[in-house]
Each structure stands twice: as C-alpha cells, then as structure tokens.
Amino acid sequence: MDSLTDDMLAIVLGCLNRVVDRNNAGLVCRRFYDAERVLRTEICVGCEMNSPRSAIAALSTRFINLSKVKIAYPRWISSMGNQVDDSALKILSQNCHQLSDLSLVFCCFITDVGMGNLTLCKRLQSVRLNFLPCVTGRGLLSLVSGCRDLTLFHIESLVSVRTVEWLDFLGRKGNIQSFAVKKCRCVGDLELRRLGHRGWHNLQEFSFEVDLIHGIEGNTYGYNGRQAVLLNSWSMEDTQVDDGPQERFPYLQTLSLTKSLSQLGTGLYSLMFQSSSLRHLRLDTCIGLSDEDLLMIAHNCSQLSSLYLRAPMGHLHLHPMNPLLSDVGLLAVAQLCSNLETLELSVWEFDPSPVFSSAGIAAMVENCSNLRRLILTSAIQLSAQVITAVFRSISLKSLELVRCRLLCFEDLEIVNNSVLDELIIRDCDDPDACFDTLRRCRRLRCLTVDNCPNVDREGLVALADVVYYNGTRIH
After folding, report:
1. How many C-beta atoms surround the C-beta of residue 11 within 10 A?
2. Element (H or E) spanning 71, and its range?
3. In what helix (H) or strand (E) does residue 271 lie, and over which residues does it extend?
4. What positions does the domain COI1 F-box occupy (predicted)?
5. 295-327 per-position pLDDT tens digit
6. 8 Cβ neighbours under 8 A, 6+ residues apart
C-alpha cells in the first residue's frame, strides 16, 4: 500500500461504495484512514447514533471536508433514544466549514434555535427540511435571512409554520434556483407571490403540493393559502390571483404541481404559460385543470420533453367551473410538443368517470414522433387499439403498465418491426393476454413483472433477453 500514489489511492477509495467497506479499509491501512479523512465529502446519519452530540462532534472532526450532510430519522421511535438537537446542529455548523448541502428528515428535536445555528454555515447553498414539527416561520426567517447564498430550498410537512415573512427574504436577492413547498398549509398561491419578481425570475425548478384532507360526509377540503375551501361547492372567483407574477420565467425548466387549485391563466397555472424553456411538467390532481390549459401548454411549451398528467377524481368535475379533461387537450400536446419523449398518464382507481379514451391514448402515441417512454397507470381500458399504436410507433422504446385492469388483445394486429424493447408490468391482475401477444412479437430486450398473480415464470424467459420477476432477475 505504501507504493500507491495519492491519485491511485483516491481511485481505490472511490470504488468502495459501501460505508462498511470504507471503514474496514481504514482499519487495515493507515493511509486509507488518513486519505478518507480528507476525501470524504458526504455522510448520512440517523437512528444508528447512540449519542447524537458526541457522534456529530466526532464525525465533523474526523472528516474535515464534509460538504453534504443528511440527518434522517424515518422510522424513529422514542425507545431508540435521543435525536440530533439544536446543540448538535450547532456543533455541526461550527466544525464543517465546507458544508454546502444539508438535509434534515423527521428531526423532531430541532427547533427555531437550530435553524438560527445554521447561519454559521457561510457556504450553505442547499437546504432540505422534511417534517420538523418544532420549527416555525420564525426559524425559517432566521435561516433564509442568515444564509444569503441559498440556491436550493425544499420544505415539506412543516406543520408548525404559520407565517410567511421568510418568503420575502428568500426571493430578495434572486439567488434561488430550486424551490419546493409540499404539504405546508400556510403557503398557497397568494403567499407565493411574496417571493417577488426577482425570486421568480431566476427559478429553474419549482414544486408545489397542497395537503388535501377528507372531511365529514365525504367532502374534500383543499388548503390553498390559509383558507380551507370546500371543493364540492367552491367558486373560482374566491381563489383568483389576477395580479400574480406577470414577468416571464426564462429559466424555469421543471414544474410540478400537486393538488393545486386555480383557474385558467391565473395563480401558479400562469407559470406554465410564461415559461418557454419548460422541459419537465408534472400535473398531479390539479383542480381546475381543463383542456384549455393543455392547449395553452402545447402552444407555449414547445421544448417540453416529459409530461406527467394525473386527472382529478370524477366527482370533482361536477362543478361547471371545473370541466372534465378529454382527448382534445391530450392530442394538442401530442401534435405541438414535438420534443416530448416521456409521457405518463394516470387516473384514480375505481373512478367511474374515465378521462382519456383508448382512442385518445392511441392517437397520442401515433402523433408523438419522438416519444420514447410511455407509462399508463390505472387505465380504465387498455384496448387492442392502444397496444397496436404502441407496436406501430417508430420511436417508442419503453412501455410501463401499472394497475391496468382490462387487457383486451383479441383483435390485435401484430407489427413485427416494432422498436419496443422494454416492457414493465406492475400490479396487473391478469397479464396473460399481454404475454400471449408478446409471444407473437419480436423478442424484447428487458421484461419486468412485479406483483402480478398467476404468472408462469418459466414462460417469461422466452419473451425477453433479460427478465425480472418481483425484483429478482430470473434470466
């Protein structure tokens, strides 16, 4: 080992991906131990720390160049002992001078004081906070006002945050590039305007998810801002945001809206129509989304390369201001978004009101000239028309079917020159019809079958070069 150069030693350590392997190497060779002390730049700790304060102190002292730290307690219970608290976070901030990326997940002992301690990290650029029940809006204000170089800020399930003044400071310098707010009931369309034009202008990634709660007598309540709105009888005029950000968003490339509530061209929906560089769009159960929205997306987002679309439940379309989506908007996207490569369509299981027809899905596949990957989740009817379009496509490489309850291929016209080489089937009750079809087609490169009952494992081997069954490779 003594004859190895420092560069070669770094390459050897880079090949050791598991922590236990790195630790064993350090015990065997002193040079490995000393090299890892300098080369180790990230750690992930949590329930395995018996004494969090002393453990954080020891780790931050040993690894002097730590730049990325994740502290997570996803399955923590009180019998496991203490968690990392404010004092441990202060030790981390004082010792890790290179710290630029910090993630805190299910840390129940960290309060606003701990958020203030993070201001000691002058190089901190990325912060992810997931379920910190003791952190309030005052703690976020201390964090974003003290850490002025933040470019990524993601928060989720911060149940104690009741104020939004921190949004003003977050957008004041215009440095933020990736921003995510999920399941934080105090933050809605109206509050997000406080990010300011400078904050919105440089944004490259934005994700927003509303927390929906099912209330009494089957009514669904959506928290959009601080007011709860009864979706079965809400009025769009009550949630209009006509004076939202009017400046275009030239750098926004990734947009994800989940359970959002808005009206055509207003609020967060306006982001889709003013972002010409948008490439990745996810619309999950967006209340108020209509064919007109999809038409505007098709006209304004010509660079779109991936689209995830999950329609709301059918009973939410009963209000005339929230019309049912149809094939019209889907076809507009297919025809005008020529760069679309990945498409995922999903509906709610057991929804009595189907959104997209088999003919619409088939037409979508036929009109997307560059479509590489298609994912269909909980499709009401997956007919032979759709599968024929899949096999006839000149670009589609991968097809994934998840919880597709009806597979009907009796009249399927087989096309042997199909370019499809990967098929993934998950949670389908009776995929035998699909497998019978595959036996008449060109052999696949890869076949994955997960959680599908009554499947002949030996019969799968003849369908593809590589076969995975319930997570295990069998061929």
Report:
1. 11
2. strand 68-72
3. helix 270-273
4. 2-41
5. 988 998 889 999 999 887 654 544 455 556 888
6. none
